Amino acid sequence: MKAKKIWISLTAVLLSVAIISSCKKDKYVPINGMCPTVISTNPADKATLVPRNKVISVTFNEKMNPASITQESFVLFQGANKIAGTILYDESTPTMSFVPSATLLANTSYTGRVTTAVKDLLGNALQTDYVWTFMTGITSAIIYDVTPPTVMSTDPADGATGVVLNKVVRVTFSEQMNSITISPSTFFIKQAGVLVPGTISYSGLKAFFTPSSNLIPNAVYMATVTTGAKDLVGNALASSYTWSFTTSSSPTAFLPLVISTDPANNATGVPLNKIITATFNEQMDALTITPSTFLLKEGANSIAGTVSYAGNTASFTPSSPLLNGTLYSATITTGAKDLAANALSNDYVWTFSTVPTIVVPVVSVIDLKSVGHFGIISGAGVSNSAGLSEIHDMDVGISPGPRSSITGFPPAVVINGTIFASDDIAPPGVPAMLVQAKQDLTDAYLFAEAMTNPAPVSIAGDIGGLTLAPGVYKSTSTLLIQGGNLTLDAQGDPNAFWVFQISSAFTTVGGAGGSIILAGGAQAKNIFWQTGSSATIGDYTAFQGTILALTSITMNAYSTAVGRMLCRNGSVVLTSTNIINKP
Predict the structure, then answer these.
(1) Could you give the dihedral angle defined by the CA atoms of residues 332, 336, 340 and 345, in that order, rounded to the nearest 10 degrees?
(2) Is 525 helix (H, G, I), strand (E, B) or coil?
(3) Which domains, and CATH codes, for the chain?
(4) What pLDDT, on a 0 to 100 scale, did the predictor assign at position 51?
(5) Which residue among 90, 290, 559, 573 sits deepest, i.e. has the most Cβ atoms within 10 Å of its Cβ?
């Protein structure tokens, strides 16, 4: 059947220009497309027999702003009770750890929550709270971690000679240590019985002692790590660890150091045509300053460019402009050497972010507000009748219905999301959160139902086989997609939207016809189906958009959706092996 076309003109809307951050809510356009996410937890979600002295850890997909790692950004609950503890952050991993102040209760369920207060180095926040649960073991079945940490290696090694005078002394442990216990009182250096002034730092499994001034030539130094150094569960070294080394007799024995960079570490708003430089404390061997020793990366991607060296400064000139609103890391490796062939003691790494893009904030034609993070929400029930249905990157909720009205999960799974019910008592605030989400759904439904700008175009019966331009479409009775696929053509406008006002039932047939085809840059997040009674997505339908239904929603066998199934009053039913992806 030859496709008919209905074209309407849309009133242009002038949107104000603003600078926005990379990862806001759905109504904003991302700058760099990367939001912080939780990639793993320890214990894992639904873990059992967890040791009662377990340190809870959360690993992110990128480096986070340490200032945002607080008691507000991570909370551990037992029921409604907030568990006291200490929060640590290791930038090198990047992992946040929570050390409970007291041993956890036996055979008890705990809930961890990472909130949207946590942010990356660009200021991008976690998009939704990350929540998971685990169960501790029975007292008699638990083997506590009582193994003391050990010192695995030191640099300089015990008995080393000819050590350079600007040496940073390093010790590597057998396991993650509590950084609070790595201090001048637990890690110190003496020369002839006198303490050497310096600063202590800790990262990964390593502690560093940086002397405040150069060491004395041809002198013996004693380094000590005491039993005050403890691992994350409070186990101390079994005994103090002491080693010695002797400095070089040459007063000019120094390791090269990077003393400054441009941009500086953690700089923001860096111009896109920036030449990256690193300045050393001494003259370097220019032959060792190359693209293999001076690197620039965006994530795991290496940036092409040319490397030059003059005076004491190395320069990296990117081959093309840097990207807006993007985090870059620069590295000078240990392959860089001075004229005496002394290499840097460690790779020198620093990060910076470029100027954000000036973009037009795109406000969704229908603001879902808090209900936007749900892939399914209903009033009476959510069921998965058969098959391995999946909901990706969104939550599932029911209100006012209880958790017992959510059935078939498993075998259905919610991936990177959480199931919430109105009778949940943990974490605190779930019932109120669901009430607000349902209110936001009602508001969105009524807003869509009442839209008159642009003027609605009348449609009726079967719209299968049509190609529709962006706009508002109104059906005064039932609506079908049956005689073929429905194509929604954005005509090159990524912000184009469609709102379908359906007074009664909405049904797709699927299979050979009845799916939704997107063309011309159309996006599922900008498509809304306001349905006055029930919506049925037919077998094998490939559906696009958010359904706002009054009565019920049914997804028949093997139908998929890039969108949301949001039902005000009744139930949402997944018949067999249905997939819902975030639009």
Answers:
(1) 50
(2) helix
(3) 32-141 (2.60.40.1220), 151-247 (2.60.40.1220), 258-359 (2.60.40.1220), 369-581 (no CATH)
(4) 86
(5) 559
Token pair listed for 566: 């949001």
12 φ, ψ to 5°? -70, 140
DSSP state string for 8-77:
------PPPPEE--SS--TTS--SSS----EEEEESPTTEEEE-TTPPEEEEESS-B-GGG-STTTEEEE
Q: What average pLDDT does the segment 175-190 reach?
A: 94
74-78 and 109-114 as β-strands: parallel, antiparallel, unpaired?
antiparallel
Q: Which residues are CB-contacts of 512 (< 8 A; sequence separation ≥ 6)?
A: none
pLDDT in tens, 384-422: 998 899 999 999 999 999 999 999 999 999 999 999 999
Question: What is the DSSP code string of 366-422?
Answer: S--GGGGGEEEEESSEEEE-SS--EEESSEEEESSS-GGGEE-TTTSEEETS-EEET
Q: Which residues contact 326 (CB under 8 A, 6 or more apart)?
A: 32, 298, 353, 354
Average pLDDT over residues 58-65: 90
C-beta neighbour count of 410 within 10 angstroms = 9
pLDDT of residue 4 exceeding 60? no
Q: For residue 215, what are the contacts with CB-CB under 8 A and spacing of at least 6?
A: 163, 165, 166, 167, 191, 196, 221, 247
Cβ atoms 382, 396 nearer than 8 A: yes
> How far is it, in rounded angstroms, from Cα 521 to Cα 544?
13
The torsion of the CA quartet 48, 85, 416, 405, rounded to 10 degrees, works out to 70
Q: Identify residue 32 by its one-letter amino acid code.
A: N
Structure token pair of residue 390: 């999946």
**Are the C-beta atoms of residues 39 and 60 closer than 8 Å to each other?**
yes
In angstroms, the CA 125 to CA 491 distance is: 33
- List pLDDT tens digits, range 266-290: 998 898 889 999 999 888 999 999 9
Asked if the model's pLDDT at residue 15 lies above 60, the reply is: no
